[in-house]
Amino acid sequence: MSKELNLWLDDLLKDIKIIQFKRKNSRRVRIDIAPEALPALLELLQGRASYVHLSAITCVDWIEDDEFELVYHVWSYETNSLVSAHTRISRDPGVYLSVYDLYTPAAFFERDIHEMFGLYFEGSPDMEKFILTEWNGPPPMRKDFDSEAFVNQTFSWEEYHPQWLKDIEAEGGGITTRPEDVR
Amino acid sequence: MNELDKIPVRQELSVAEGNVKRSNPLANVFDELVRFCQSRSMFMLHYCTGCGAIELPPAMTSRFDMERLGIQPMVTPRQADILLITGYVSVKTLKRIILTYEQMPSPKYVIGICSCTVNGGMYWQSYATAKVLKEYLPVDIYIAGCMPRPEAVISGLRDLMGDIKSGRADNWKRYFQNYDHYLGNQQKLFGEDWQTPTDIIAEAEHYGLMTDQTLGEHTALLQKHQQPLEALEFSLGEKREKIQGENPREKNNE
């Protein structure tokens, strides 16, 4: 039964001209779609094909293209398959529509993406700080945030070969069994 | 193997470094007895921040059985002797660790397990983890490894027991003696209005551990920002109504 449903869905989705449809295997479908059409697609999938479970929304920062890629993963318990809807929006100003009215759990993912990437979702119920409540810097998952430079600026490091170890080595001690001796 | 024994791994403490023996021989015997008892009944608060915590259940339960050495888990910081920090410490967690540490009664010992507490470990690049634990708390023993096996954990704890027995494990005093230094590092990370409910300066006075390093510019900053503690408001009924009113879904249903 579920195989037949999948085939019908494939035929339907292939007929829509503005999307790129690609079936990866019997349980995964990839769809590339323009950002203005994505809420309509999700509504169609949820209402007509029982894709009721929003598993995750993921965000990718394509800094060279100046774009964010949003991937909506929706799962259907009828067809037992996952649809990943990919869409790309401009990095500046980085505002997109919330799908909270379709999928309530979207509030959770959108808040997380807002915190990590600085992408704002219009219509999402809560865009406050979520996990990084004590973080005042830029959104840390953006590619233009240099984590290493931040760490070197903020934290100091333990010395790997401190004076007390040198003192012990001068007396003939120190690391007695080096890794290469064991191997 | 015999050569290994000759290597000076640890220098014996001289009298000048604070290992003062009392003139009354009976008092010495009593001190030694107290230290022996302390080293043989250690209650451990394991603050499981990272993956190193997974090595503790086998170390505590029947396979390796820490309790035969007198080391037992404890549920509250107020009754614990050892604070065991297992793994990476995020900046948010570090605040809670400092709160927990300051609540523990002296003498108290901190053990940093895993490479992450030494130098950030595999999270050295992360913006969210604090790197060197001993900048913020006086650490007695580091057990390095990613992760150390239960044998290594028990071996580290045995080292600490030896230190307590011989009177060497007095790092907890350093927190009071150099409070300005530790507070300065904490303020650097958490902002200058950082404060804890525990009054460390008053405790330092109580233990007689005030030095010229206890007070300084950072403690002056602390006293400037310090606010008196207030009891939290407890109003369950009102809050529930408020949440129901704010929920847009419920509004739609009405």
Description:
The complex is a heterodimer of chains A (183) and B (254). Chain A is α/β, with parallel strands linked by helices and 183 residues long. Chain A has one domain (2-138): Beta Polymerase, domain 2 (2-Layer Sandwich), CATH 3.30.460.80. Chain A contains six helices and seven strands. In chain A, the strands form two sheets. Chain A has a five-stranded mixed sheet with strand order 1-2-5-4-3. Chain A has a two-stranded parallel ribbon with strand order 6-7. In chain A, a hairpin with a 4-residue loop joins strand 3 (53-62) and strand 4. The mean pLDDT of chain A is 88. With 254 residues, chain B is an alpha/beta fold. Chain B folds into two domains: 43-168, Rossmann fold (3-Layer(aba) Sandwich); 170-227, no CATH class. Chain B has helices at 2-6, 25-40, 56-60, 91-103, 115-119, 150-166, 171-177, 179-190, 200-207, 217-225, 236-246, 248-253; strands at 42-47, 71-73, 82-86, 89-90, 109-113, 129-130, 141-143. A five-stranded parallel sheet of chain B has the order 2-1-3-5-7. Chain B has a two-stranded antiparallel ribbon with strand order 4-6. In chain B, strand 1, helix 3 and strand 2 (71-73) form a beta-alpha-beta unit. In chain B, helix 2 (25-40) packs antiparallel against helix 6 (150-166). The N and C termini of chain B lie far apart (81 Å). At the A-B interface, helix 4 of A face helix 4 of B.
How are the elements arranged and paired?
The complex is a heterodimer of chains A (183) and B (254).
Chain A lengths: L1 H14 L4 E6 L2 E5 L5 H12 L3 E10 L4 E10 L4 E10 L4 E3 L8 H12 L2 E3 L24 H8 L8 H8 L8 H4 L1
Parallel strand pairs in A: 2-5, 6-7
Antiparallel strand pairs in A: 1-2, 3-4, 4-5
Chain B lengths: L1 H5 L18 H16 L1 E6 L8 H5 L10 E3 L8 E5 L2 E2 H13 L5 E5 L1 H5 L9 E2 L10 E3 L6 H17 L4 H7 L1 H12 L9 H8 L9 H9 L10 H11 L1 H6 L1
Parallel strand pairs in B: 1-2, 1-3, 3-5, 5-7
Antiparallel strand pairs in B: 4-6
